[in-house]
Amino acid sequence: MKSYALAILLAMLVAAGYAFQNTGDVVVRFIIWEKTLPQGLWDILLFAAGGLLMWIVSLASLVEVRGALRRKIKDQEERIRALEQEKQQLLDALKTPSVELPQPAVGTMETELPSSGDVQ
User: Fold this and answer.
1) Of 56, 60, 16, residue with least CA distance to 38
2) DSSP structural state of residue 118
3) For the segment 72-106, what is each residue's pLDDT rounded down to a tens digit?
4) Distance from chain centroid for Cα 36
5) What is the C-alpha separation between 40 and 42, in angstroms, rounded?
């Protein structure tokens, strides 16, 4: 922030020097409006108006970016909640005793493999 203040101060000093060196009157007409002021003052006013306009545009851009980031944060938080629920369900499933199926005793089930002569 200090660098911005320093840049603005420097621009103001340069503009003041320019205004003092260009004291000739200039008539500015716009549609039905007409005004006469020194050239340096007009230039400073236009410079300030341009700076103000760019500041307003940058604020609009900032609002747009912040909105996009807020939506992204909301989506990420929803994703985290869903993953935490899934994690809890998996942990609960591991804690509950599972039903064990009876295992056949070893050697009680005999299988016969077909001999090579039985294959057609």
Assistant:
1) 16
2) T
3) 999 999 999 999 999 999 988 888 776 666 676 66
4) 47
5) 5
Measured distance CA(38)–CA(120) in Å, rounded: 112
* Domain edges within the chain: 7-94
CB 25 within 8 A of CB 39: yes
> What's the one-letter identity of residue 112?
E
* Distance of alpha carbon 64 from alpha carbon 71, whole angstroms: 11
Query: Nearest-CA neighbor of 25 among 15, 12, 14, 40?
Result: 40
CA distance 44 to 16: 8
Express each pLDDT in 62-80 by its tens digit.
Answer: 999 999 999 999 999 999 9
pTM: 0.48
| Amino acid, res. 105 | A
Q: What does the angle CA 70 – CA 75 – CA 80 come to, to the nearest 5 degrees? A: 125
How far are the Cα atoms of 28, 47, 51, 52, 53 from residue 60, in angstroms, in the given order? 31, 20, 14, 13, 11
